[in-house]
Specification:
The protein has six helices and twelve strands. With 201 residues, the protein is of the alpha/beta class. The protein starts with a strand and ends with a helix.
C-alpha cells in the first residue's frame, strides 16, 4: 500500500488516480499508524509554503514524516511536497520547512519574455545516475506549475535539472528520499514511468 499524505493541499486526488492506473493500492490519509506502516509514502501538493507547513504542524504530520524517513521507507515529494522538504522558502519568510534536505526555495526573477509562474512542459537533464529516472531519456519533457524553484544546498542531492529563466534543480534523490518539482502524475507516459520507478524501489 502506498500512502498519500492528506494535509488539505490541492492536487492530491490526481496522484491517487495515477497510482491506481499503475495498479497500486493507494490511500489518502493522515493517520499515523497507516502512514508508518505503508510500504511507500508520497507528499504531493499545490499551494503556499507557509500555509502547508502550518497544516502539517497542526495535524501532527511533521514528526510523522520525519519518522517515516528515518525508518527508511521510500518517500517522495511532488511539487509543493518537494519544497517542504527543504529549510525555507522566500514565499513565506520566517517559516521553517521540514529541513530533511539542505536548501532553500527561491522565486523566479521577473524577466522580460517570461511569465511567472512557469506553467507547461519543460525538459530534464540528469547530472548523475538516479533510481527515480531509470530508463528516462535525457531531454524528456515533464509538466511544471511553479513560481518558486529549489536551490539545493548539496549538489550531490540533485537528480535532475531543468531551465526556465535560469537553470534550476528539478528533482532530488538521497537514500530513501525522492522529490520532483514537476508533476509526474500529469506528465503522460514519462511521468507514469517515473512513478513506476518509485513504486519499484
Amino acid at each position: 500500500m502506498i500512502a498519500i499524505i492528506d494535509y488539505d493541499a490541492g492536487n492530491i486526488k490526481s496522484v491517487e488516480k495515477a497510482l491506481i492506473h499503475l495498479g497500486e493500492d493507494a490511500v489518502i490519509t493522515r493517520d499515523r499508524d497507516t502512514l508508518l506502516s505503508a510500504k511507500k509514502v508520497i507528499l504531493p501538493g499545490v499551494g503556499a509554503f507557509g500555509d502547508a507547513m502550518a497544516r502539517l504542524n497542526e495535524y501532527g504530520l511533521t514528526d510523522i514524516i520525519k519518522s517515516i524517513i528515518s525508518k527508511g521507507t521510500p518517500f517522495m515529494g511532488i511539487c509543493l511536497g518537494l519544497q517542504l522538504l527543504f529549510d525555507s522558502s522566500e514565499e513565506s519568510p520566517g517559516v521553517a520547512g521540514l529541513g530533511i534536505l539542505p536548501g532553500v526555495i527561491t522565486r523566479f526573477p521577473q524577466t522580460p519574455g517570461y511569465k511567472v509562474p512557469q506553467i507547461g512542459w519543460n525538459s530534464l537533464s540528469f547530472p548523475k545516475g538516479s533510481r527515480l529516472f531509470t530508463g528516462i531519456p535525457e531531454g524528456s519533457y515533464v509538466y511544471f506549475v511553479h513560481s518558486y524553484y529549489l536551490k539545493a544546498g548539496n549538489p550531490d542531492d540533485v537528480a535532475a535539472n531543468s531551465e526556465y529563466i535560469l537553470k534550476f534543480d528539478a528533482a532530488v534523490e538521497r537514500d530513501n528520499v525522492f522529490a520532483c518539482q514537476f508533476h509526474p502524475e500529469k506528465s503522460s507516459d514519462i511521468g507514469l514511468r517515473i512513478l513506476k520507478n518509485f513504486i519499484e524501489i
